[in-house]
Amino acid sequence: MLDWLIEGATVVDGSGAAPYTADVGVQDGRIVAIDRAGGAGRAARQRIAAHGTWLTPGFVDIHTHYDGQASWDPTFSPSIHHGVTTVVMGNCGVGFAPNVRGREAELIALMEGVEDIPGAALAEGVAFNWESFPQYMDALDAIPHSLDFLVQVPHDPLRMAVMGDRALAQQPATAADIARMQQQLREALQAGAAGFSTGRTDNHRTARGHETPASEAGAAELAGLGAAFQGLRHGVLQMVSDFDLLRGPERFDAEFDLVETLARASGRPLSMTWLQRDPGGAQWQAIQARVEAAVAQGLPLYLQTAARGIGVINGLDASFHPFMGFPGYKELAALPLAARAAALREPARKARILAERSERVSGDGTPVPPIVDLLLARIELIAGRMFPLAETPDYEPSVLQSFLVRAKQRGTTALEALYDHYAEGDGSNLVYFPIFNYNDGSLDTVRRMLEHPRALAGLSDAGAHVGTVCDASFSTFLLTHWVRDRATGRLPLEQAVHLLSGRNADYLGLADRGRIALGLRADLNLIDPQRLAVGPPRLVRDLPAGGRRFLQKGEGFLHTWVAGRCVQHDGAVTAERPGRLVRCGA
User: Fold this and answer.
1) Is the pTM of this model over 0.90?
2) What pLDDT was estimated at residue 22?
């Protein structure tokens, strides 16, 4: 007898093939029947009439930062609300293992600064009942979870465990250091770690404002770490880099050479962040050209691509807003939100603050990256990319909706238009600011990226930047905006689902998921395409120590199954906990 029989669904199987109508049967966590003729005669414990719905594979999110949250949240919220059934963490070179006893605070400061996760929440919520990376894997695997998860070895904690203070000072690794890092990475890979990640971007800072420990690692170190993969049949590498953009475009090729050094030494697939930056709006094309040339030479390089603009949600209670550096605002910053908004509406205070200039907000002692000061200095110009965020979020708004145009219509400055928006009502108004991928005022560049044959749907950063974004909703956005709602340039449903499932599973070497096929795991989504929606972001205080984060739930996901067990039903998380650590190479 089948456990589940899903009758009459439109099956989008994750391979990129055209959808078809079928009955799909599940038994003991596997897909055991796909009947295009209808399987009404099959006995099943539970039957679902699924006519008019989409049945897709569970989505594979290759770029999350649940490294800490996995300790206290078994559901991986909000990913569970967006059709994701497998998450990969340990990205961008940051994480919590390996761990040297007594230095946990340094790992917390690193994650707090780079990924905007409150340090108090991490200090209270992360158990740190491990030292080595395999011990970390065992500790997480002992906790029942809703979703499956994979872990990558992050470069910064690895470097810190081996080099101590010399890593924090960004000193070059010696041959002995490299050998020890290689040994620890190899042990983690043999224990089933999914790969290795490293970060090389000037926008990443620790909570104390310092550059990350591995951001300047040299070619010998990267080659030595890549060599840890030799002889293994599994493993991927992930890198984020801005290729020294703020130091000058002439440094691009030398930085990209390091990408190739790591990929060549490992012989394994390597994916990197792919954005249209600002400044540096043409860099994404230079990255594409170098990747295509490297692929032609046999290097397995891939491009992690977002589904929409990469930016921040601004608000008085969010991590960022344009007035955070103004002396007059700082006087009010500790007030409750509604009282703060009321004080901002006082005419004399408003006039004084608008006459001020923002003090520097980046630098030593703060994780705020230098780009924030650059943007604040250009606020009247960049207001053309700042938009009110409505209850139904619009992530491809027209410049006519921007605060720049609002200000011109009112005969005032963009700064004043923003000020009035934040100060309105109880102070909960939000502003959407796509910093990257929106240089031309549309997502046309993103579409070109999504269609590239080396593109991987990624960069959700789920679990991170909790006070500025909730891009765990990328999967739902891809299916709503790009498949159903965009006026022009929509993507075929089967292409979008392939990006979210089959292609990412293939990249990771996960042959048991990512598609709807006989014998594969029953990681599935049943979706109502008419009800499918991203939902508005809400600031909630549900982190340890009362920490706040943006939470954005998808709508229209009728069922999400992991290994044949329903973990989410019509927006509600169930008590089922079938998720486990996926040990690669086992």
Assistant:
1) yes
2) 97
